[in-house]
């Protein structure tokens, strides 16, 4: 496949020094938007290539994780390979890396060195705790970002002490840090592109504050009132009824019936018109005060219905609801397919594989067209990239 000319970041050149999740997730977003991304891997490849299922030794996840990227291999312990990296960065607009804080400085490639070679280079740095502060040298993975950023405290069920609060099921802090880094790097590139005299910026993103940024009003509430929000389980403390209810087939149904009009429709649909007329439930504040009674009534009804049938009844009443989708539900849902959220992609390493679409759409570009090629083997583009480098070519490259 070739570079799609109508994507907004066509022409932007990014070098990724990423491993595992955060930086590669950031560059995947930028590559989906049309940027040239050259992923620099160690000779054995990004360690994430060994994660999860595989086909003939090729990691299934990497088909998505590495899509739209050019892969080259360099051993940064070797001076000649560090020199090649510097040459790549001299033609680049930005570098995104997620080594432990200070690693680039330790190998002689800190921002001062790189800016001496390319003064307009934007450098996006993702680490566990940031590039300074008392914790900067501590190791961290995504789970630590969830724990310290405040999220894991909230994922338990109220009063539950037998089991630890669960993670959300994906590496959410890595993904958040990647998204924030991508956004900040593009903002810095916009500033540099718009000013011929501008110098490159250093963007410092960390896992902990990326999670911490999602804590809504909890910090000012603590500062003003000393309140510490406690786990709420599947409910929302400030809106009712909004919860997840058990169904007859062992599945779950999420229901959001918290506006006054929707609440009345919900009660009519489950055969509880008297509750809709009860003045205790006339406002959201009253419903929140009496939420246990409401949740019990809704759960009594959902327990009599398979999840899909309960969902259909409430949808007919225009009550926001959804079964808890697993991946089979997502992959086969007609809306996912019609919108192109689930795509069939021909992968030379894996065969026909399903990809999630990029989470943004542009007029005139189909979601399928944004996947120019799937993730490739480590170093698959060594010859192409290094030959172009030796010729002094600066135009963006494609697979």
TrEMBL record:
A single GO molecular function term of this UniProt record: transferase activity
Native source species: Neoroseomonas terrae
Keywords: Transferase
UniProt-listed PANTHER family: L-CARNITINE COA-TRANSFERASE, SUCCINYL-COA--D-CITRAMALATE COA-TRANSFERASE
Protein name according to UniProt: CoA transferase
Gene3D superfamilies xref list: Crotonobetainyl-coa:carnitine coa-transferase, domain 1 (3.40.50.10540), formyl-coa transferase, domain 3 (3.30.1540.10)
Taxonomic path: Bacteria, Pseudomonadati, Pseudomonadota, Alphaproteobacteria, Acetobacterales
């Amino acid at each position: 496949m070739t570079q799609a000319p109508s994507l907004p970041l066509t022409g932007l050149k990014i070098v990724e020094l990423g491993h595992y999740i955060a930086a590669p997730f950031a560059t995947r977003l930028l590559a989906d938007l049309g940027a040239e991304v050259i992923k620099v891997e160690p000779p054995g490849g990004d360690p994430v290539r060994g994660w999860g299922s595989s086909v003939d030794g090729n990691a299934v996840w990497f088909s998505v994780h590495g899509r739209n990227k050019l892969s080259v291999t360099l051993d940064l312990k070797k001076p000649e390979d560090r020199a090649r990296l510097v040459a790549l960065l001299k033609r680049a607009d930005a570098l995104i890396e997620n080594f432990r804080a200070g690693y680039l400085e330790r190998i002689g490639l800190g921002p001062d060195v790189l800016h001496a070679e390319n003064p307009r280079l934007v450098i996006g740095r993702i680490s566990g705790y940031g590039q300074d502060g008392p914790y900067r040298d501590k190791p961290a993975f995504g789970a630590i970002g969830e724990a310290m950023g405040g999220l894991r405290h909230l994922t338990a069920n109220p009063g539950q002490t037998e089991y630890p609060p669960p993670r959300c099921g994906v590496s959410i802090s890595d993904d958040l840090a990647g998204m924030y880094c991508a956004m900040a790097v593009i903002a810095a590139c916009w500033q540099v592109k718009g000013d011929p005299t501008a110098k490159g910026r250093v963007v410092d993103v960390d896992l902990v504050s990326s999670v911490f940024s999602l804590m809504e009003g909890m910090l000012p509430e603590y500062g003003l009132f000393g309140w510490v929000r406690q786990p709420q389980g599947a409910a929302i403390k400030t809106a009712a009824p909004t919860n997840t209810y058990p169904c007859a087939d062992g599945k779950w149904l999420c229901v959001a019936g918290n506006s006054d009009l929707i609440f009345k429709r919900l009660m009519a649909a489950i055969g509880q018109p008297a509750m809709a007329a009860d003045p205790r439930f006339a406002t959201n504040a009253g419903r929140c005060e009496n939420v246990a009674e409401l949740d019990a009534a809704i759960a009594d009804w959902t327990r009599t219905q398979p999840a899909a049938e309960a969902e259909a009844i409430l949808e007919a009443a225009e009550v926001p609801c959804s079964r808890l989708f697993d991946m089979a539900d997502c992959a086969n849902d007609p809306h996912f397919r019609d919108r192109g959220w689930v795509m069939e992609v021909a992968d030379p390493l894996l065969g026909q594989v399903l990809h999630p679409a990029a989470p943004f759409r542009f007029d005139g570009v189909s979601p399928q067209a944004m996947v120019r090629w799937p993730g490739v083997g480590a170093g698959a583009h060594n010859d192409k990239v290094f030959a172009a480098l030796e010729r002094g070519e600066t135009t963006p490259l494609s697979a």
